[in-house]
Amino acid sequence: MTDTATRRTGSSFVNVGERTNVTGSAAFKKLILAGDYTRAVEVARQQVENGAQIIDVNMDEGLLDAVFAMTTFLKLIAAEPDIARVPVMVDSSKFEVIEAGLKCVSGKPIVNSISMKEGEDAFLHHARLCMAYGAAVVVMAFDEKGQADTKARKVEICSRAYKLLTGIGFPPEDIIFDPNVFAVATGIEDHDRYALDFIEAVREIKAACPHVHISGGLSNLSFSFRGNEIVRRAMHSVFLFHAIPAGMDMAIVNAGQLDIYDQIDPKLRDACEDVILNRTHAREGEETATERLIALAESYKGKDIIAEKAAEEWRGWDVVRRLEHALVKGIDAYVVDDTEEARLLHARPIEVIEGPLMAGMNTVGDLFGAGKMFLPQVVKSARVMKKAVAHLIPFIEAAKEVGARPKGKIVMATVKGDVHDIGKNI
Length: 426
Fold this sequence. Notes:
Helix 9 packs parallel to helix 10. The protein is an alpha/beta fold and 426 residues long. Helix content is 51%, strand content 9%.
């Protein structure tokens, strides 16, 4: 299989929205503690609009009645068609909260998570309950000895859990292993292999445990650089670029915060590659990969505002380049004006679609197919395309010849929400 073909296996990669989690989002936690469920529901809606295909919901906060908060929130989002169309991941460290949540979910839920931390009996008891509710389940690489932090331990624990689960009739396709994403570039040498061990473990788990899925919490990876969003986004995109072809099926991630791999500053991208793949060690008198990334990260602090100003330079380009840039970046602020400018330059409005707009979408398709762009970004591109086409439709209709006969209809059927559904809608 060629590298390009291998990368294409990431086309079904699933993004799990992480912002409806009181332990991971201070803003969401504040809304829930204040009882402002109306605005909390909008957080879920925003995650779906940004491309999240599953919503992770966690209410594990000491000041909350977690059962009440979980059931209240799940009932509210179930009544919102825009949100209810995606599956819910019921996330809690307390099984009574999980079970209460499962009773409120229509469709197939996902439990996050169970583990062998308390031994095999408790693990299988929880698994049977999940199976009774028809739920898929996230299984942490965690046993009686603790969390798996090496490739060997990750593979050992997941293989053992797989044998136990399939032994009680748990469907293997409903098993989602989380082999633990840990922080890298911490300055502690024992942590240098964490990302690489995860990627290598994914390959072995997929080979040893047929039909299972692999997930992970992406934000853990870059925890050392919290507050430096440019570096964190780059690390996440580089990690996914390597983990998806290895067999990672999904990740808990802020769906709106992923960079296009090819558009990361090459110097930063190379530094992230060195850290994630642990491929460069220090020779005497030289910096380690971690030291290089830490030093480089300093130059990106506070640069988000500067980058935003520099990003506006593209407005001075010719209209064809502007339309392609808007599609690739998912920027819809100027697309109507740019589409109108392009229409005035072409003999027929349809030529704008067949020319610059399709050229931009072809670039998006190439990047996505190569694993350098992820589904949330494709969704944004599709929205820009839809807005541009909506502007052109009246002109296309007006340009039709009087008395022209339609050539018939073409019916295109796809699975709703599938990546091909997005293409069909475009």
